[in-house]
């Protein structure tokens, strides 16, 4: 199979915060990979803009070192790396003041797609948007890309939307949720809407329940002070898990176009029932022999912030009434894995008798570590001994199915940045979607605060607090094992 790389038009991409952690780890190495693959045109330019006073050459050295550190394999292509660095520029810009903006304007070329990536703290979004207009750097075709977190509740998200909307229209604003850039997430839509096989079964008549798990083995790391004001609900559920839930649950859009898809996702969020307190479990990781506790990590001995959350959700619409959606996410868990599992109902009658056991079809969609899908089907166990049934996986792991081409599957960030240049907003969150998601999560978080809810401790390397297991046991179901 030959992979097709369709080059994008020439562009000037300004990365505010170009010297920051996210730019060095994800954005710049990702752009290099797109360049090396031939997708980024020779005329494309990347302009770092940050507070540090450094020359263009110093920034190029920083970019080179970032690629070498975070993608050593790609960095071996030194010929392309040198050519890529010629496409990289730097201007010191003070987002809060007037310094550097004119110099930035002088670097930008007319008649070229302009994109501005706000890889800075959200408190700077409004002021950068305003200065882009004041210094006449962005016309009605320019795009801005904003990072998470997009607000910390409905009120702050609304204020953020309002401050951006004063200078840019919705069609120019690209709110990144990198989960949407993952190959498997897009494949989920291809599988659902490109095949006759699944969609007729995709409803409460045939689906028993759905599980969404995003498990991490790491703790809060160096993000402790931020994380402790956020917690798993704000950091993971309100954005990534809810986006996954929307894509699984939405009605088929009439076409694969940004507003058609986002309209359907929004309808799902609006149909979500409020979550009853007994349908949600919060947890906080304890110390192990090798690692510190959550409270030690965030240096807050009285922290009540959750590093784990599990919940049972219901969608009140024609398609899903009666099919629960279970979601869980947490840090310091048993394995690093992200999976959506669609668990189908039992066959209505077993012609093989009770001894054949109960077998269920499960469609497992894995986002990491190895992206792919597996459909569990029941077959006869080979050999003599009567009609014994076993479950076998129909494995669609992309790395195996696509061979060497799978290695060229772009990482989520680079794919999304190319979509910004193309002007395609399908995989970005619309302002009303983000607000609707906060409107659903706010009462849950406020409930915890009002009740002085204390998260349950759980062991590092476990599957979370026992109460999370009970959440499903009470319904006669069980979580899938957390494994890589
Ligand atoms: P960082 O602190 O490492 O970098 C911040 C960048 O902003 C630096 O380049 C700094 O020079 C620049 N900056 C700060 N104040 C400025 C000013 N007044 N004028 C001009 N530039 C200024 O932060 P980061 O980790 O790269 O995160 C950037 C954004 O991305 C944040 O909104 C963060 O929440 C979000 N984000 C980060 C990650 C990650 O993995 N690092 C993941 C998801 C989202």
TrEMBL record:
GO MF annotation terms: glucose-6-phosphate dehydrogenase activity; NADP binding
Metal-binding among keywords: no
InterPro entries reported in the protein's UniProt record: G6P_DH, G6P_DH_AS, G6P_DH_C, G6P_DH_NAD-bd, NAD(P)-bd_dom_sf
Boundaries of every Glucose-6-phosphate dehydrogenase NAD-binding domain copy: 14-187
The keyword NADP appears for this protein: yes
SUPFAM superfamilies hit by this protein: Glyceraldehyde-3-phosphate dehydrogenase-like, C-terminal domain (SSF55347), NAD(P)-binding Rossmann-fold domains (SSF51735)
Pathway assigned in UniProt: Carbohydrate degradation; pentose phosphate pathway; D-ribulose 5-phosphate from D-glucose 6-phosphate (oxidative stage): step 1/3
A cellular component annotation (GO) from this entry: cytosol
Catalytic activity: D-glucose 6-phosphate + NADP(+) = 6-phospho-D-glucono-1,5-lactone + NADPH + H(+)
Domain Glucose-6-phosphate dehydrogenase C-terminal: 189-480
EC number(s) given by UniProt: 1.1.1.49
EC main group: oxidoreductase
Positions annotated as active site in the UniProt record: 240 (proton acceptor)
GO process annotations (BP): glucose metabolic process; pentose-phosphate shunt, oxidative branch
This protein's UniProt keywords: Carbohydrate metabolism, Glucose metabolism, NADP, Oxidoreductase
Residues holding substrate: 178, 182, 216, 235, 331
Annotated NADP(+) binding sites: 17-24, 51, 148
Job description of the protein: Catalyzes the oxidation of glucose 6-phosphate to 6-phosphogluconolactone.
Family (UniProt): Belongs to the glucose-6-phosphate dehydrogenase family.
Protein's name according to its UniProt entry: Glucose-6-phosphate 1-dehydrogenase
Lineage of origin: Bacteria, Pseudomonadati, Pseudomonadota, Alphaproteobacteria, Rhodobacterales
Gene responsible for this protein: zwf
């Amino acid at each position: 199979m030959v992979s097709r790389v369709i080059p994008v038009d020439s562009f000037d991409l300004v990365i505010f915060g170009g010297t920051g952690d996210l730019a060095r780890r994800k954005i710049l190495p990702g752009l290099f990979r797109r360049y090396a693959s031939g997708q980024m045109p020779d005329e494309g330019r990347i302009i770092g803009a940050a507070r540090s006073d450094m020359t263009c050459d110093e920034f190029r050295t920083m970019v080179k070192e970032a690629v070498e550190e975070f993608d050593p394999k790609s960095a071996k292509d030194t010929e392309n790396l040198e050519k890529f660095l010629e496409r990289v520029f730097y201007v010191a810009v003070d987002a809060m003041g007037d310094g550097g903006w004119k110099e930035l304007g002088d670097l930008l070329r007319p008649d070229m797609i302009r994109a501005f990536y706000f890889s800075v703290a959200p408190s700077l979004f409004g002021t950068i948007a305003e200065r882009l207009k004041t210094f006449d750097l962005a016309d009605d075709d320019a795009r801005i890309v904003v990072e998470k977190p997009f607000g910390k509740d409905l009120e702050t998200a609304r204020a953020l939307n309002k401050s951006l909307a004063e200078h840019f229209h919705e069609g120019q604003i690209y709110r990144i949720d990198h989960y949407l850039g993952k190959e498997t997430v897009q494949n989920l839509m291809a599988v659902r809407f490109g095949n006759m096989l699944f969609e007729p079964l995709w409803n409460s008549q045939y689906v028993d329940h759905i599980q969404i798990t995003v498990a991490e083995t790491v703790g809060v790391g160096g993000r402790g002070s931020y994380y402790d004001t956020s917690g798993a609900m704000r950091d993971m559920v309100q954005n990534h898990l809810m986006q996954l839930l929307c894509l699984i649950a939405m009605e088929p859009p009439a076409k694969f176009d940004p507003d058609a898809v986002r309209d359907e996702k929004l309808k799902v969020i609006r149909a979500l029932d409020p979550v009853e307190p007994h349908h949600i479990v919060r947890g906080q990781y304890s110390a192990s022999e090798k690692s510190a506790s959550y409270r030690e990590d965030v240096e807050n001995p009285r922290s009540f912030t959750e590093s784990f959350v599990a919940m049972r959700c219901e969608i009140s619409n024609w398609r899903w009434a009666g099919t629960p959606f279970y979601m869980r996410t947490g840090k310091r868990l048993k394995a690093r894995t992200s999976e959506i599992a669609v668990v189908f109902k039992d066959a209505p009658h077993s012609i093989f008798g009770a001894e054949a056991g109960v077998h269920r079809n499960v469609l497992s969609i894995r986002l990491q570590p190895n992206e792919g899908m597996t459909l569990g089907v029941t077959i006869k166990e080979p050999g003599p001994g009567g009609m014994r049934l076993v479950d076998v996986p129909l494995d669609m792991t992309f790395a195996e199915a696509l061979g060497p081409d799978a290695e060229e599957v772009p990482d989520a960030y680079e794919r999304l940045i190319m979509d910004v240049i193309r002007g395609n907003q399908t995989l970005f969150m619309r302002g009303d979607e983000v607000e609707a998601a906060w409107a659903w999560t706010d009462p849950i978080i406020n409930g915890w605060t009002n009740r002085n809810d204390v998260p349950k401790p759980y062991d590092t390397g476990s599957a979370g607090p026992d109460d999370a297991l009970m959440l499903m046991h009470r319904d006669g179901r069980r979580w899938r094992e957390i494994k890589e």
